[in-house]
């Protein structure tokens, strides 16, 4: 888990129909273990705006295998991918799905240009 902003974890937010609504937000690190309909507050990266969304729409990013679990700077890690805590699977892989339905940071290895 990536605790990189005041104890919050890097995450992404989808809409009810599965469309990506927020590429990068900071969310509570236990958000994927909360009830799906529980309202949680996430904060947008960059402008730090607070958003209230249901926990089931938030997916935490996980560091790539053997990468720092809590980097001091995002430039320290280049392969951040969304990961599902319930099925223990990476939700997309740039080499297999291009940009895929889930985001990869612009600086990520293999990210679509």
Label this structure with key terms.
113 residues, mainly beta, eight-stranded antiparallel β-sheet
Which structural class matches the secondary elements?
Answer: mainly beta
- Computed over alpha carbons, the radius of gyration is 13 Å
Q: Helix coverage percent of residues?
A: under 10%
What is the percentage of strand-forming residues? 35-45%
Rounded mean pLDDT is 72
Number of strands: 8
Shape: globular
Count of runs of 4 or more consecutive helical residues: 1
- Biggest sheet, in brief? 8 strands, antiparallel
- C-alpha end-to-end distance: 26 Å
How many domains, in number, for the residues? 1
- SSE run: EEEEEEEEH
Spans with pLDDT under 50 lasting ≥5 residues?
none
Helices, strands, pairings?
Blueprint: E1 3-5, E2 8-14, E3 20-27, E4 39-44, E5 50-54, E6 58-62, E7 81-84, E8 89-90, H1 94-97
Antiparallel strand pairs: 1-2, 2-3, 2-6, 3-4, 4-5, 6-7, 7-8
Region (Disordered): 94-113
Question: How is this structure best described in words?
Answer:
The longest helix is centred in the last third of the chain and has 4 residues, at 94-97. The protein is built from one helix and eight strands; from the N terminus they run E-E-E-E-E-E-E-E-H. Strands 1, 2, 3, 4, 5, 6, 7 and 8 form an eight-stranded antiparallel beta sheet that branches. It has one domain (3-97). By secondary structure, the chain is mostly beta strands. The mean pLDDT is 72. The chain has one helix spanning 94-97; strands spanning 3-5, 8-14, 20-27, 39-44, 50-54, 58-62, 81-84, 89-90.
């Amino acid at each position: 888990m990536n605790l990189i902003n005041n104890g919050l974890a890097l995450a992404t937010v989808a809409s009810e129909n599965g469309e990506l609504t927020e590429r990068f937000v900071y969310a509570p690190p236990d958000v994927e273990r909360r009830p799906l309909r529980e309202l949680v507050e996430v904060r947008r990266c960059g402008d730090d705006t607070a958003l209230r969304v249901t926990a089931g729409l938030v997916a935490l990013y996980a560091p790539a295998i053997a990468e720092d679990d809590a980097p001091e700077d995002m430039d320290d890690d280049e392969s951040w991918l969304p990961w599902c805590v319930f099925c223990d699977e990476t939700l997309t892989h740039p080499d297999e799905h291009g940009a895929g339905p889930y985001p990869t940071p612009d600086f990520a290895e293999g990210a679509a240009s």
